[in-house]
From TrEMBL:
The keyword DNA repair does not apply. This is Transmembrane protein 231. Transmembrane component of the tectonic-like complex, a complex localized at the transition zone of primary cilia and acting as a barrier that prevents diffusion of transmembrane proteins between the cilia and plasma membranes. Required for ciliogenesis and sonic hedgehog/SHH signaling. Its main location: membrane. The keyword Glycoprotein applies. Belongs to the TMEM231 family. Keywords: Cell membrane, Cell projection, Cilium, Cilium biogenesis/degradation, Glycoprotein, Membrane, Transmembrane, Transmembrane helix. The chain crosses the membrane at residues 151-170.
Length: 202
């Protein structure tokens, strides 16, 4: 399984302490099979503790969430925009509440599941605060609207499968009917090929 190992060291003075972490990791999420889809996504992590820490360790899965199926044809880039507008001069564009709220309005998002945060204490003086994260990319089931020819292809495969089963059942029934004389039958003698036609001279 593919995964990301992320490590961040934050320099701190001896008088500074960390009691909580709010972390946003941004990703470029791309699909190239069945549906062509490109978006800028994120994983949000928030943890707080009562005692100062020296390190935060996180281990989770980046999962795709869909509110509607993707399109089959064309390149879908409706969400290929930065989650955080880094060029904006306005402080409101960096407000965490607004960033998360705008992100949740999307029909397709990513989320960090089962992060299992571990808070380590006992930071030495002048030592940095460390964030260690392991993020896995598991296999996903993607919902999309199939195209016409794809529907025809799978419909034909299903039709042939049902047809073969029907022919096998019909052959078994026909054999049973004739072998067990369920229907009254009168055998007719085979007529030689030469007697099918006779010449009449008038």
């Amino acid at each position: 399984m593919d995964m990301l190992h992320f490590k961040l060291e934050l320099p701190l003075q001896s008088t500074e302490h960390v009691l909580g972490v709010q972390l946003i990791l941004t990703f470029s999420y791309q699909l190239h099979r069945m549906s062509t889809f490109v978006m800028q996504s994120m994983a949000f992590l928030q943890s707080s503790f009562a005692v100062p820490g020296s390190q935060l360790y996180v281990n989770g899965d980046l999962r795709l969430q869909q509110k509607q199926p993707l399109s089959y044809s064309g390149l879908d880039v409706r969400y290929n925009v930065s989650v955080i507008n880094g060029t904006s001069p306005f402080a409101c564009d960096y407000d965490l509440t607004r960033i998360v709220a705008a992100y949740q309005e999307r029909n397709v998002t990513t989320i960090l599941t089962d992060p299992n945060p571990i808070w380590l204490v006992g930071r030495a003086a002048e030592a940095p605060f460390v964030i260690n994260a392991v993020i896995r990319y598991p296999v996903e089931v993607i919902s999309y609207l199939p195209g016409f020819w794809e529907m025809i292809k799978f419909a034909w495969i299903q039709y042939v499968s049902i047809l073969l089963i029907f022919l096998w059942v019909f052959e078994r029934i026909k054999r049973f009917v004739f072998q067990n004389q369920v229907v009254t039958t009168i055998p007719a003698p085979a007529m030689p090929q030469g007697e099918l036609y006779k010449e009449h001279i008038s």
